[in-house]
Amino acid sequence: MSLFKARDWWSTILGEKEEFDQGCLCLANVDNSGNGQDKIIVGSFMGYLRIFSPHPTKTGDGAQAEDLLLEVDLRDPVLQVEVGKFVSGTEMLHLAVLHSRKLCVYSVSGTLGNVEHGNQYQMKLIYEHNLQRTACNMTYGSFGGVKGRDLICIQSIDGMLMVFEQESYAFGRFLPGFLLPGPLAYSSRTDSFITVSSCRQVESYKYQVLAFATDADKRQETEQQKLGSGKRLVVDWTLNIGEQALDICIVSFNQSASSVFVLGERNFFCLKDNGQIRFMKKLDWSPSCFLPYCSVSEGTINTLIGNHNNMLHIYQDVTLKWATQLPHIPVAVRVGCLHDLKGVIVTLSDDGHLQCSYLGTDPSLFQAPNVESRELNYDELDVEMKELQKIIKDVNKSQGVWPMTEREDDLNVSVVVSPNFDSVSQATDVEVGTDLVPSVTVKVTLQNRVVLQKVKLSVCVQPPLELTCDQFTFEFMNRNPDGIPRVIQCKFRLPLKLICLPGQPSKTASHKITIDTNKSPVSLLSLFPGFASQSDDDQVNVMGFHFLGGSRVTLLASKTSQRYRIQSEQFEDLWLITSELILRLQEYFEKQGVKDFACSFSGSMPLQEYFELIDHHFELRINGEKLEELLSERAVQFRAIQRRLLTRFKDKTPAPLQHLDTLLDGTYKQVIALADAVEENQGSLFQSFTRLKSATHLVILLIGLWQKLSADQIAILEAAFLPLQEDTQELGWEETVDAAISHLLKTCLSKSSKEQALNLNSQLNIPKDTSQLKKHITLLCDRLAKGGRLCLSTDAAAPQTMVMPGGCTTIPESDLEERSVEQDSTELFTNHRHLTAETSRPEVSPLQGVSE
User: Fold this and answer.
1) Mean pLDDT in the chain?
2) At what angle do helices 771-785 and 733-746 cross, to 10 degrees?
């Protein structure tokens, strides 16, 4: 930042929400007044043309009404304004205004006022040219060496140079190899046009070559035009600058030499007439505009360069002479003589901030006022600090993350799930194998008793469930009196039949678990009314479930004991039916008025089956990492072969390819094959992670029944075993769960204070294998069996004498009976209070609406 600011001489704001660019500013004696004072001409993209003649009474005054000489609405966007000798028969200055499809030349004149309102100015249209092509920019000068008049050259968007000899159209020529238009300038000393092409090179075209080249009535030349008498348009010289140009300016302060200044994105260049570099300067900031002007030193040129840091730098050739700060980012800068003051710097921003300033050495320094000093009372500070710490501690204990309140909520959220499926399924994939995928409509109702703002409703599900819309925003928001955004949750359950159909029970299965209860067995027809057929015997003790996708689960209720068995060929498929069974049993006995109902699990913990799913998931992660490394190597090899082939093709002397083309084709096929393998592995990894989450839910459920854990203890287990909603290569399930379980083992489940003192590694990396994770999970179950208590504090409860789980009595196979019934289910199921719920491949996930 500069110590000195640009001294504000006069400034104003142009219009409201108008936009400007570098061609919208011009300084000239446009009204041909006798005093020769310059006027400020400004055009905007909104179509307004304004002419100012500042007369501040004192330095820094804003614009007065009499400073605005003329304001006209031209109704078309103004791309560029220039002042020159554009009318034949006179050498008076006229104003040329370039629109996108029109070029207009006006005369500006003033009439002496007879009253106190002062002089009156008017603008009269002399002539106009309707353009056949959309214009981009223009330049003017004495093309071809004409005397006493200026010609205009307009560059179109598609690369055509259109030359106008005042009131008449001369010719049009297309630039060769054109892609996008660049800045355009005219050099009177060499009689040539200079521009910067899309190839990032400065190009010069002689006017005589343009005049005698083939006429460009059409973009594509025909064969007859190519063979005709017209000459082909040939560039005079080129110079590659390696970047796009913002502006070009031709400077000629004496007849001996002229210079071509080009402002790039990171450099500005000074070129000779023949295209050779005179000097260049690398800029440390992003420039926005520039203007070369004469220097007091012989043989040097000064340049004003504005940048996007609100700075204006003055260079003498390549030496920085001055830097000053502006109140805005300039897009155009000019220097002129205003109100008998020479060298006034006029800058214009893109939002219409017009300022006339000069350079000065009077710094604007801010001096802070003196503050009354008083002695600090450290005793009072300690008391205040303790009170604040106590308030923070109480808030953290009572409220947790979100502020809780016992008063009536300002916003209530209720959800109603339709009892029937949609007649036309809204599912993306209508079929999964041979099964049709249903859809159900969920109605969410918001009720507010005060005016609220910006309420956002989010519905979260995990695959395989999908939503037609998951985000809703309303223009009212729920805030408590303290101004803290609040979150309201509404949890609801979906029908089990959304992903599960009645199926044929199976007598044999690879995986079985048994749930014990303390009450007589209940008919499965009462628990699952939509999954069994009514018979003479209301005591249905066997039921089959068929998941969408093909897997099957069988549920058996013992006739003689108080046990239920769930069995399936897939271990992870057991979770959903087991969870549904326990929830529906609890709801059934609550309706009967029974309060002491309890479930338990006394069988052996199925850790071996669980570890097999962990190993399969970890194996897919390792495989995916290897495939990505191999794909990266093949991609590097592919690019290296491409570079070598490109070098051979560019070589003027042909050389044999030495089977590089064959190697390129083979490498390309390997890259495609590896990319397909990576994509296939990602799909398998996603399915494996979903199965692993289902199995994890089942293990947590069994541990809770086995040790009779409370809801808070089960929440701790879920936080440790299910920390991720999505599995990635950077942060995977194995290392995250291992760190969480290790923390539990060294805090609340530790045997001694020595274990609590051990520090965990703060960096999570993918492990070499899963042996340590499986060891920690086994140790966790062992600690819980020996009386360990899960809690958030490090003080563990006193161990209690517990018995390790043993075997369980099998349910006789003779109890197996086949029954089925078709009936819609309106049963719903709940979940813990996380914002996003976990799901597995075949199960129904809880949906939760969140408004904030």
Assistant:
1) 81
2) 40
- Distance between CA atoms of 850 and 470, rounded to whole angstroms? 10
Last residue of a domain, which of 786, 802, 837? 786
Q: Which residue has the tokens 């995250």?
A: 736
Quick one: pLDDT at residue 49?
Answer: 94
CATH code, domain with 331: 2.130.10.10
Residue 151, classed as helix, strand or coil, is: strand
d(CA 129, CA 104): 7
What is the residue type of 119? N
In terms of DSSP H, where are the helices of 522-573? Answer: 524-527
What contacts 766, CB < 8 A, 6 or more positions away?
A: 621, 625, 729, 732, 734, 735
Nearest Cα neighbor of 153 from 176, 179, 181 is: 181
Q: Long-range contacts made by residues 583-588, C-beta under 8 angstroms, separation at least 24?
A: 583/829, 583/830, 584/527, 584/528, 584/827, 585/517, 585/522, 585/527, 588/522, 588/526, 588/527
List, for residues 138-176, the tens digit of each pLDDT value.
999 999 888 889 999 999 999 999 999 989 999 999 998
Beta strands in 350-430 (DSSP E): 353-358, 411-417
Determine, yes or no, domain membership for 835.
no
628 and 681 in a single domain? The answer is yes
**Same domain for 66 and 148:** yes
234 in Cβ contact with 209 (< 8 Å): yes
91 lies in which domain range?
5-217+232-360
DSSP 8-state symbol, 144: G
Rounded Cα distance between 184 and 159, Å, is: 11
443-477 residue pLDDT tens: 888 887 777 667 778 887 776 777 888 788 776 54
Q: How far apart are CA 22 and CA 291, in angstroms?
A: 11
Statement to judge: residues 307 and 416 lie in one domain = no
Mark whether 43 and 163 lie in a shared domain: yes
Which residue bears the tokens 């949750």? 489
Both 510 and 649 in a single domain?
Answer: no
Closest CA to 490 of 518, 460, 517: 460
* 663 and 584 within one domain: no
DSSP letters spanning 703-749? HHHHHT--HHHHHHHHHHH---SS--SSS-HHHHHHHHHHHHHHTTT
The per-residue pLDDT for 397 is: 66
Same domain flag for 644 and 772: yes
848 assigned to some structural domain = no
pTM value is 0.50
